[in-house]
Each structure stands twice: as C-alpha cells, then as structure tokens.
Automatic annotation (TrEMBL):
Name of the protein in its database record: DUF427 domain-containing protein
Superkingdom of source: Bacteria
Pfam families: NTP_transf_9
Organism taxonomic ancestry: Bacteria, Bacillati, Actinomycetota, Actinomycetes, Micrococcales
Coiled coil: none
Domain DUF427 positions: 16-61
Amino acid sequence: MPRRRSPRPSRPCGAPFCEFKGSARYLSLRGGDVVVPRAAWNYPTPAPGFEELADRVAVYAGAMDACTVDGERVTPQPGGFYGGWITSDVAGPLKGGAGTAGW
C-alpha cells in the first residue's frame, strides 16, 4: 500500500533480504497505545525492476486484528515468512504451510 495510506510505522526492527527485491526492513506498527513489532516491511531502495516498491509498506495480515480487501476479511498466508493476503479470488496451492518449503 502507499506509505501515506499505511498504519503509522514506528521504528525499523530488523533487515531481511530478498534475492529479487533487495534489502528490506521490518517495521513496528503503532495504533494508539499498541505497538506490534515486525508487523510490516518495506524496501527503501529496491533492486532494479522493483523501483515501484520504494514508497510502499506491506503489512502481515496475521499481525493485525483484521485486514480487508474490498470489504472481504483476508486470511493470512500460512507460515510466518510470507505476507500474502488470501481472499476468495486467490486459488492455491499456497506456499508457507506444512510441507511447502521445498517448492
């Protein structure tokens, strides 16, 4: 989502790396008095071909009370690594659950 529409990022807390998009940073999100560490991530300086990501923040749906797309509540992608938002429009199989590490 565009940074201007995202929940307020608190402070960076970790620096994962994607072989395609480059170095990212985890962000804590703050809502009122609640801070959720590593609930989001972004790519401040993405690799060539992924420049559009520079001004975006991605949120782990599983870290939030609820996330919706066009009014539909999403299901977080299985596992703790991927940040997919699963809706009725998404068909599997989906990576992240038990037995999917090898593909």
